[in-house]
Amino acid sequence: MMKRRSDGYLTNKSINGLIAQQQKGVTIVIEHRFFGYSNPYDDLTSQSLAVLTIQQAIDDLVYFATNADLPMPGGDAVKPGQAPWVLIGGSYSGALTSWTMVK
User: Fold this and answer.
1) For residues 17 and 39, what is the distance between their CA atoms, to the nearest angstrom?
2) What is the pLDDT of residues 81-96, one digit of tens each?
3) In this structure, are residues 44 and 50 in contact, taking their beta carbons and an 8 Å threshold?
4) At what angle do helices 92-102 and 54-67 cross, to 10 degrees?
5) Radius of gyration from C-alpha coordinates of the chain
């Protein structure tokens, strides 16, 4: 598995990981559409880039939070309706977090 720069946020060596550990939660890094491996199209034409909008990015976060069944140690699954979510970020991802919270 390829190590990414964001992997450090997933451990208890970061404030994010410490909070998750204290709250018996998990940390997840969600890749933004059109970045990394998350390109919904094979090309970058103006037609495909029409879905690269802030609203689509917000909708992606909301969809993930309301539909993800996360495997947990011991075999339990955290159902989306039972899991509180804490969104964090800095710069653009911080702005995206605040815009998502408004929705």
Assistant:
1) 27
2) 677 777 888 899 889 9
3) no
4) 70
5) 15
